[in-house]
Specification:
About 15% of the residues lie in helices and about 25% in strands. By secondary structure, it is an alpha+beta fold.
């Protein structure tokens, strides 16, 4: 079974620098679980950013595992095949949008083929150290930004919107859990963990989805929404890199007609654990159901990178909670790490509770990237969710030619082109230019005593909230409790 590079909230984060917590960057920084799973667990203390740094590893003079699209996967010997023919527009220029539409990620083959870069990586770290300054090998990069990866939480938009359809609070709670558990498998199906781009300060990403079963293009647009060219029946999404030190990403999604939204902020604390890497995902998300004035607060699992000496893979670990203060319903879910000897990968177990009860009315077990089963308090058992049997709905992103300067795909297009066609020098130079630009802008602000201003999110206590949430534009049945879900203020 493939390990997905999904929206999975912890996945992304492992090897990233200004990475935030939901990301799939457990990539090549992962390692063999030489410790027991218990000793690999992270504590919640500290505010260390994730792993990152300049592009390292293969140069144009070395065999690279980036490979090429159009069948250009790296061979198991580590030698790339010839890159495919570049997609061109009618005027002969490179079609950058097609590079993002091509979701085939080239596997890196066995890590033995890259022994020199693995040795270089390990030489930079000590057990227990944070991974902020560690240089990563280029061949592990995935061709998109961490901000775009966060959109994978909504790869099944119909599951998210269905929360608002249920009349009974018990059913709504169960559907929140079902949507949450559907979010971690989505994304590219590469069998090897990859690292997304570290977003630069002020970077933005917009996208939307046409929701199965809902007509698109017939409703009025929402000009004051997060994606102002979308209509009321489309699920819209915005993400922004709101802080560089520590690296914090914030994102928000809403559906106007269903009166439902989600706001989250995430950053990470990463540790080197011997021959594995662990990332503690710090932050929370809030599902707001306006029709019932309900907010469901969710936390995120930790991420672990394994098998650096063979083929790196990702697993999630640790407890998460989902709770609704208004109704009193709650859930606890445990992402189980694989024991050193025996056991299965990617197991989860969970319990859902009614207000005031200590005995769960619903228990869930299975694999987060496969099938999950439900057992009810009355003894009934049934399938709860099988993520391999539900189609992923492709997000829609406007063409790069129409994007603003700070939008992710426009910012990173030259890096993406370099990686796609195995031109490591091009990718490295483009990434270096972006990093230098960020340093120059930071120095200029410091010299002029100017504070960085975010565009779409603002800091509120320990949280980052969207500046114009749906509840402020189409209030329904009063205002939510700001102490529970501060995005509502």
């Amino acid at each position: 079974m493939h390990t997905s590079n999904a929206l999975a909230p912890s996945l992304f984060l492992l090897c990233s620098s200004p990475l935030s917590p939901l990301a799939l960057s457990l990539s090549v920084c992962s390692g063999l679980p030489i410790f027991s799973s218990a000793s690999d667990q992270l504590d919640a203390a500290g505010r260390a950013p994730g792993l990152g740094g300049p592009l390292g590893g293969a140069s144009s003079g070395q065999p690279s595992a980036l490979g090429a699209g159009g069948g250009g996967r790296a061979s198991m010997s580590g030698v790339s095949r010839r890159p495919g023919v570049p997609p061109l527009l009618s005027d002969g220029s490179l079609d950058y949008d097609a590079l993002y539409d091509d979701e085939d990620e080239c596997d890196i083959g066995t890590m033995e083929a890259h022994g020199s870069v693995v040795t270089h990586l390990l030489s930079q770290v000590k057990i227990g150290m944070d991974l902020t300054r560690v240089v990563l090998p280029t061949f592990i990069l995935e061709r998109r930004s961490l901000l775009e990866m966060y959109s994978d939480y909504f790869a099944h938009p119909d599951y998210f919107l269905k929360i608002a359809d249920f009349k009974d609070p018990k059913d709504r709670m169960v559907q929140v859990v079902r949507w949450y558990m559907s979010a971690y498998h989505a994304g590219r199906k590469s069998s090897v963990a990859k690292k997304p781009y570290n977003p630069i300060l002020g970077e933005l990403f917009y996208c939307h989805w046409n929701v199965p079963g809902l007509p698109a293009g017939v409703e009025p647009v929402v000009p004051d929404g997060p994606v102002p060219w979308c209509d009321r029946n489309q699920l819209t999404f915005i993400a922004e890199q709101v802080s560089h030190h520590p690296p914090i990403s914030a994102f928000y999604a809403e559906h106007y007609n269903k009166r439902i939204s989600f706001c989250a902020h995430v950053w990470t604390k990463s540790k080197f654990l011997g021959l594995s890497v662990g990332v503690h995902n710090i932050g929370q998300g809030c599902v707001s159901v306006l029709e019932y004035d309900e907010e469901y607060i969710v936390t995120f699992p930790n991420g672990y990178g394994r098998s650096i000496l063979t083929v790196p893979w990702i697993e999630l670990g640790g407890p998460v909670t989902i709770s609704c203060a208004k109704t009193g319903f709650s859930a606890t879910i445990e992402f189980h790490t694989k024991p050193f000897y025996g056991g299965r990968k990617h197991r989860i177990s969970g319990e859902v509770f009614q207000p005031g009860d200590k005995k769960a009315f619903l228990s869930i077990s299975g694999e987060w990237n496969g099938s999950m089963q439900a057992k009810w308090a009355d003894g009934r058992t049934e399938g709860f969710l099988n993520v391999n049997e539900i189609p992923i709905v492709k997000k829609i992103v406007r063409p790069i030619s129409e994007q603003d300067e700070m939008e992710s795909r426009r910012l990173w297009k030259e890096v993406t082109a370099g990686l796609r066609f195995n031109d490591i020098d091009k990718a490295t130079n483009a990434k270096t230019d972006l990093e230098q630009r960020q340093r120059d802008e930071a120095k200029d602000r410091k010299d002029r005593n100017i504070r960085w201003e975010t565009k779409s999110f603002r800091e509120l206590g320990d949280n980052w909230v969207y500046v114009s949430p749906l509840v402020n534009r189409v209030p329904k049945n009063g205002t939510a409790d700001p102490s529970c879900c501060p995005e509502q203020r």
